[in-house]
């Protein structure tokens, strides 16, 4: 079996006759169709991140056990994400020894503190946007189940409240099970069939109307699964985010300049991120969210931008909006671990979350055969445990 290397992807690693049918076209599917070609080689990080990475010299290969992971259940055939904070006894490489902060690889001193007493003083609120579709509901149920499990464990002190921001405009059958805040969708036709365009508008409404006790917010998604407790990775006005290899602002400078003019600064100011996973101070998100919404709509209504960015358009919009407000993120490659998968569609074992658009997957899914990465096995086991313990699972509430 051939697998796609963890980071960056290798376009030549596709196995034509792979017996195991697994797929990770990108990372967070977010209920979108895969309409673009295979992700290209990892783009450039911003200049500061590259410089810091070179100085730090640390790598994930030397990191010990995960402190947290989130798994996204199924993309094409199976899509999963691991969000992970790696706690080291010390820094990584010469840069860390010298006390330098490496925003991509090495661990700054404040983050080590965040794993202990500091994390308990800085709880974050978990917020995910969702629709009332059956496809979204069963993923939210699994996500919330594991949030509660991990919050109750030692090390889960920073995991504060939880809100499903429901942008369908009306209550659904999960109101009594999952803390939910109902907001309005965009006006009819404004999303142009791109449901994710409702996400920034949902956050704008939630931030304006809801009472949020925590100072920080983790923007998450329905297809995430916590597998270990998560400390607060943000540092005051420096949000923490995962750098996506397929978000490459420098490769699209002509388009980016429509929304981030030269007088604002270099294109490298724009982080290679989306809005999730991000841990950010609430006051910062309150400033960014309206701009994120406006930029998203402008991008969608511009034919060239829409065609170029496709299903990741809203991710670019968040990155641009953050830069417009002078906010740059701590880029953490060890925030999320991408498993090694093929792009095969037919094989010995298959799980496609989009096969369950109209209801949840059956209980007790068959585990992958031997040889499949352990992260995939973990994903299926987590879904199975949740479905075994959640009431009325088969009813698809």
UniProtKB/TrEMBL annotation:
Segments passing through the bilayer: 65-83
Major subcellular site: membrane
Annotated Gene Ontology cellular component terms: membrane
This protein's record includes keyword Membrane: yes
Hydroxyproline O-arabinosyltransferase-like domain sequence ranges: 124-338
Membrane topology: Single-pass membrane protein
UniProt entry tagged with the keyword Signal: no
Localization terms from the record: Membrane
UniProtKB keywords: Glycosyltransferase, Membrane, Transferase, Transmembrane, Transmembrane helix
Single GO MF descriptor: glycosyltransferase activity
Full protein name: Hydroxyproline O-arabinosyltransferase-like domain-containing protein
């Amino acid at each position: 079996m051939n697998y796609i290397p963890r980071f960056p992807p290798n376009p030549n690693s596709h196995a034509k006759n792979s017996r195991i049918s697994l797929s990770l076209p990108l990372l967070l599917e977010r209920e979108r169709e895969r309409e673009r070609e295979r992700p290209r080689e990892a783009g450039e990080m911003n200049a500061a991140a590259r410089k810091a990475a070179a100085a730090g010299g640390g790598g994930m290969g030397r990191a010990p056990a995960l402190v947290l992971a989130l798994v996204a259940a199924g993309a094409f055939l199976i899509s999963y994400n691991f969000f992970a904070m790696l706690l080291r006894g010390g820094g990584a490489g010469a840069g860390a020894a010298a006390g330098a902060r490496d925003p991509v690889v090495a661990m700054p001193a404040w983050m080590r503190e965040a794993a202990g007493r500091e994390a308990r003083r800085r709880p974050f609120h978990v917020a995910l946007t969702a629709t009332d579709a059956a496809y979204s509901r069963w993923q939210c149920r699994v996500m919330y189940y594991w949030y509660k499990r991990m919050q109750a464990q030692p090390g889960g002190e920073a995991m504060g409240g939880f809100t499903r921001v429901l942008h369908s405009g009306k209550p659904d059958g999960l109101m009594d099970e999952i803390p939910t805040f109902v907001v309005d969708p965009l006006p009819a036709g404004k999303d142009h069939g791109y449901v994710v365009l409702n996400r920034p508008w949902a956050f704008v409404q939630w931030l304006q109307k809801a009472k949020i006790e925590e100072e920080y917010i983790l923007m998450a998604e329905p297809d995430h699964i916590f597998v270990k407790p998560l400390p607060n990775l943000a540092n005051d006005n420096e949000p923490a985010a995962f750098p996506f290899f397929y978000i490459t602002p420098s490769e699209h400078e002509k388009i980016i300049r429509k929304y981030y003019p030269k007088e604002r600064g270099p294109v490298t100011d724009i982080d290679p991120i989306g809005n999730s996973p991000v841990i950010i101070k609430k006051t910062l998100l309150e400033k960014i969210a309206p701009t994120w919404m406006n930029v998203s709509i402008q991008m969608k209504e511009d034919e060239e931008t829409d065609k170029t960015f496709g299903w990741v358009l809203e991710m670019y919009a968040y990155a641009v909006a953050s830069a417009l407000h002078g906010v740059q993120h701590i880029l953490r490659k060890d925030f999320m671990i991408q498993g090694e998968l093929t792009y095969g569609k037919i094989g010995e074992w298959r799980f496609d979350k989009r096969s369950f658009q109209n209801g949840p997957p059956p209980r007790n899914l068959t585990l992958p055969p031997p040889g499949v990465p352990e992260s995939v096995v973990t994903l299926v086991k987590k879904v199975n445990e949740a479905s075994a313990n959640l009431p009325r699972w088969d009813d698809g509430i």
